[in-house]
Design a protein that fits this description.
CATH architecture of one domain: 2-Layer Sandwich
Distance between the termini: 70 Å
Strand order of the largest sheet: 2-1-3-4-5
CATH class of one domain: Alpha Beta
Strand content: 15-25%
Structural class: alpha/beta
Order of helices and strands: EHEHEHEHEHHEHHEEHEEHEEH
Helix content: 40-55%
Largest sheet: 5 strands, parallel
Radius of gyration: 48 Å
Number of helices: 11
Number of strands: 12
Shape: rod-shaped
Length: 414
C-alpha cells in the first residue's frame, strides 16, 4: 500500500499544484479545502504518512488546525509541514512549531525542495511502519511463546503428577502381588493336609468296601479323581507362587544339554504317548535353568496331551535368531533367540492365542482333558522374568506352535 498524504488548502489550484509535483512518486492523496474539513477526515482516518497544510485559511488557520489535530492521541504521530507565502518572523515560526509543525515550505513552491522534504518524511514513515509491523509480529510471537511455555509447564506438572500417581499404583500393585503370592502359597500349603486326609480315607474306603458298594463305588472313585485333580491344582498354584525374579540364579545355559536332561526325565511320558521329539541346535542362553525346565516341560506335556487320535505325536524343537527393539532405548536393536515348540496335535482357534496364557484359562471342558489352566500362565511369567515373551499360533486339527523369545544379551543388561 502506497503512503497517503493529507493535503489541506482553501485554494483548489494550490492542491492541484502540490499533487502534480508529487504524483510521479506514486503517493495517494486525500484533499481537504479547510481546517474543519481536514478534522472531519481525521475523525475516521488516521493512517497518513504526513500532512501538507496551508497556514492562512479562513475560519480555522493552519496553526489552530494543527493544535486541534494533536489533541488526539492517535494523530500525534503524523508529521505536519506548513505551506505559507509569508515569513511570519521567528515568533510566529516558533508558534507553528509549538502547534506541532516540523517544517515549513514557502511559496512559490520549489518542486525539488518539496519532493526532497516529503521524500525524507515518507522514508521515515516506511521505516517506522516496518518497525511497527515487526513489533507486532514479535508481540504475537512472544504471546504465543508465553502461552506455549505456560502450557508446557502445565503439561510437565501434569506429567509429574501422573508419574507420581503411577509410582504409587506400581507400589500398591507390587505389594498386592506379593500379598497375593503369599496368600496363594499359604492357602495351597494349608489345603494339602485336609486334602491328603480325603485321599487317604477315600482310598481306605475303596479298598475295604468296594466289593460291597457295587454301583455306589463310582461315588468313591469320583472323590478320588476330584482329590487328585485338587492336588494337581494346588501343586501348580504353589509352583506359580514360588517363582521369583532373583537374578543371582541366572547362568549361561547349554540349552542342548538342558533339553537332553529334560527329555531323559520325561522318557516314560514320551514312550507312553508313542511320540517322537526332535531337538535342533539351540544357542547358549543366559537364564535361570530352574525356571526354563518347568516352562519347556509344560509345553512338551501339552503337546503330548493334546494329540490327535490315530496320529503319532511329533514334536519339533528348533530356534532362530531375530531382531527386536530394546524396551529401554528405542534406538537400540536387540538380538533375540526364538525357540519354537511345534506339534501336530488338535490345535485351537487362533482367536484364543492370547487368552490361553491367562490364569486358569482352559479351552476344553474338565472331563475332556486333564489340567488346571495354570501351566501356560506359568510359562508366560517365566518368559517375562527373563525379559522375554511367549506367543502361540495354531490351526484346528493342524497343530500348534509355541514361541519363546529371549534376549541373547541378557547378562549384559543385568
Amino acid at each position: 500500500m502506497q503512503p497517503r498524504i493529507l493535503l489541506v488548502d482553501d485554494r483548489e489550484d494550490n492542491l492541484m499544484s502540490i499533487e502534480t509535483i508529487l504524483a510521479p512518486k506514486g503517493y495517494q492523496f486525500v484533499k481537504a479545502s479547510s481546517g474543519r474539513q481536514a478534522l472531519k477526515v481525521l475523525l475516521n482516518e488516521f493512517d497518513f504518512a504526513m500532512i501538507l497544510m496551508d497556514v492562512k485559511m479562513p475560519s480555522l488557520n493552519g496553526f489552530e488546525t494543527a493544535a486541534l489535530i494533536y489533541e488526539r492521541e492517535k494523530l500525534k504521530h503524523i508529521p505536519i509541514i506548513f505551506i505559507t507565502a509569508n515569513n511570519y518572523g521567528d515568533e510566529n515560526m516558533f508558534k507553528g512549531y509549538q502547534s506541532g509543525a516540523i517544517d515549513y515550505i514557502f511559496k512559490p513552491i520549489n518542486p525539488d525542495i518539496l519532493r526532497a522534504k516529503v521524500g525524507v518524511l515518507i522514508d521515515l514513515y516506511k521505516k517506522n511502519r516496518l518497525l511497527f509491523e515487526q513489533e507486532q509480529k514479535l508481540t504475537i510471537i512472544n504471546r504465543n511463546l508465553e502461552r506455549e511455555i505456560a502450557e508446557r509447564i502445565h503439561s510437565e506438572e501434569k506429567v509429574k503428577q501422573l508419574n507420581h500417581k503411577l509410582l504409587e499404583n506400581i507400589a500398591h500393585l507390587e505389594s498386592a502381588n506379593k500379598d497375593l503370592e503369599r496368600f496363594a502359597f499359604m492357602a495351597s500349603h494349608d489345603l494339602q493336609e485336609p486334602l491328603r486326609k480325603i485321599r487317604v480315607f477315600s482310598d481306605m474306603l475303596y479298598n475295604k468296601y468296594h466289593h460291597l458298594l457295587h454301583d455306589d463305588v463310582k461315588m468313591v472313585t469320583r472323590i478320588q479323581h476330584s482329590a487328585e485333580r485338587m492336588r494337581t491344582l494346588i501343586e501348580d498354584i504353589l509352583a506359580f507362587s514360588k517363582i521369583t525374579s532373583d537374578k543371582s540364579d541366572f547362568v549361561s545355559n547349554d540349552m542342548n544339554l538342558l533339553f537332553k536332561d529334560l527329555l531323559a526325565e520325561m522318557e516314560e511320558e514320551v514312550t507312553e504317548a508313542s511320540a517322537t521329539i526332535s531337538v535342533e541346535s539351540i544357542p547358549v542362553l543366559y537364564a535361570n535353568p530352574n525356571l526354563l525346565r518347568p516352562l519347556f516341560q509344560n509345553l512338551i506335556r501339552n503337546a503330548l496331551k493334546y494329540c490327535r487320535k490315530e496320529v503319532t505325536p511329533h514334536i519339533r524343537i528348533r530356534s532362530e535368531i531375530s531382531l527386536g527393539i530394546n524396551d529401554r532405548d528405542k534406538n537400540l536393536v536387540n538380538k533375540y533367540c526364538r525357540i519354537f515348540v511345534e506339534d501336530n496335535g488338535i490345535g485351537f482357534d487362533s482367536k484364543y492365542s492370547e487368552e490361553i496364557f491367562g490364569m486358569f484359562r482352559r479351552l476344553h471342558k474338565n472331563g475332556e482333558y486333564s489340567g488346571t489352566g495354570v501351566g501356560l500362565a506359568l510359562c508366560k511369567k517365566i518368559a517375562e522374568l527373563h525379559n522375554g515373551f511367549i506367543s502361540a499360533r495354531s490351526k484346528i486339527n493342524e497343530g500348534s506352535t509355541f514361541i519363546l523369545s529371549l534376549p541373547l544379551k541378557q547378562e549384559e543388561e543385568q
